[in-house]
Design brief:
Layout: H1 2-29, E1 46-48, E2 56-58, E3 63-66, E4 69-72, E5 92-96, H2 99-102, H3 112-123, E6 128-131, H4 139-148, E7 157-162, H5 173-185, H6 192-214, H7 216-222, H8 235-243, H9 256-275, E8 280-284, H10 299-311, E9 315-318, H11 320-326, H12 328-331, H13 343-360
Parallel strand pairs: 5-6, 5-7, 7-8, 8-9
Antiparallel strand pairs: 1-2, 3-4
Helix pairs in contact: 3-13, 4-9, 8-10
Length: about 375
């Protein structure tokens, strides 16, 4: 009896092993690429940061094909030509931002920072623009980066490239890197089959992670000491909140805790820039889509961001109308991507920035 049972068990295990071996061979010879969506170049470009507010940072002197473009990080840890913080400059702009500012999917010379530098030099020879954009950053991360790096460049103007998803946690860049390292360093990472199985589970976990970190009760708990509620009711904010549509990403602005965290970041930045008398310009990038009525559906969210920025004395440049006139859909770097403008959108941004800067400098009427 026992020998018969043992024989059946051995047969079962042998069959299971044969099936697994067959699946392993099929995956190896069918063109399946383990970790393809993890191994996209970012593992060479970003690393964990020692700052809990920065979370992750660019790797100095890194080179890779990442985020759909050739990326070269200079010795100071940002994309673009290296500028020494203490070098003299007739006019220097420091730009904070996320993947739009960084320039996902476009060449470095096509980013609005690079185009702005070239345009400014026509009127201000030697003008410089430092692009401190990092893909996936939100406003708090950008402010923390300004504290540790940006202000050392002594900018004459600080520009914040703002995307509507900056009010929430929209990037899992660090989680992707940590997953990639776990795969790379594990013994089972050599098996295509085990990688494939784990990959399917991890995709589900990643979506769950993004949902959980943005779930409002968890968000409030995690950032309880990174929020700045209003001391008194603000009728402007209250009126705008009531008008917000239930449409992504505008719906994120319905949660006061997210606005409190944004306000905290802007207040922290305001204190830093006032110390050095540095003017701040927040540039609002539109979510490049239209509503069913043909109108821009996120105007109320823009109004809320403008209201918060102006509360701390920051200027605001909203690109919505310029992008609408140019044709928002045609400005997308990819048809399916409402977030990232292509080179033409960056050109429009650079030209409007130059106009704003020259007007503020009194060089144009």
């Amino acid at each position: 009896m026992k020998s018969a049972l043992a024989g059946k068990l051995a047969l079962l295990l042998g069959s299971l092993f044969a099936v697994c071996l067959l699946l392993e061979l099929i995956l190896r010879f069918s063109g399946f690429t383990p970790l393809e969506y993890l191994h996209n170049g970012r593992e060479a470009v970003i690393r964990p940061s020692s700052s809990p507010d920065i979370v992750y940072e660019l790797v100095p002197d890194a080179k890779a094909i990442a985020w759909g473009t050739e990326v070269h990080i200079n010795a100071w840890g940002y994309r673009g030509d290296a500028i020494h913080p203490d070098s003299p400059s007739p006019f220097r702009v420091v730009v904070l931002g996320d993947s739009i500012t960084f320039g996902n999917f476009i060449a470095q010379e096509d980013t609005f920072s690079s185009q702005l530098a070239a345009l400014l030099q026509e009127d201000i020879p030697g003008a410089e623009v430092v692009n401190l954009g990092v893909g996936g950053y939100d406003t708090l991360q950008e402010v923390a980066l300004y504290e540790t790096l940006g202000q050392s460049f002594h900018p004459d103007l600080l520009v914040i490239g703002y995307c509507l998803n900056d009010i929430a946690i929209a990037s899992a860049n660090l989680q992707y890197i940590e997953r990639f390292n776990r795969y790379r360093d594990s013994w089972w990472g050599r098996s295509y089959l085990l990688v494939w199985i784990n990959d399917q589970l991890e995709r589900i976990r990643m979506q769950s992670w993004l949902f959980e970190v943005n779930e409002i009760s968890r968000f409030q708990e995690r950032y309880a000491d990174r929020m700045l509620p209003l001391a008194d009711p603000d009728p402007v904010t209250e009126a705008l909140l009531k008008q917000l549509p239930n449409r992504h990403p505008s719906a994120w602005y319905k949660d006061p805790a997210r606005l409190d965290r944004l306000r905290y970041a802007l207040d922290r930045l305001g204190k830093l820039t006032r110390e050095n008398n540095t003017p701040v310009l927040l540039v609002l990038f539109p979510w490049m889509e239209s509503g069913s009525d043909g109108q821009y559906p996120h105007a109320i969210a823009h109004a809320l961001v403008r209201h918060e920025a102006e509360r701390f004395g920051f200027d605001v440049l909203d690109l919505t109308e310029a992008f609408r006139v140019a044709g928002m859909q045609g400005l997308r770097v990819r048809d399916v991507d409402p977030v990232h403008p292509g080179p033409e959108g960056h050109r429009i941004t650079a030209e409007l920035l130059k106009e704003h800067i020259l007007q503020q400098a009194g060089r144009r009427p």
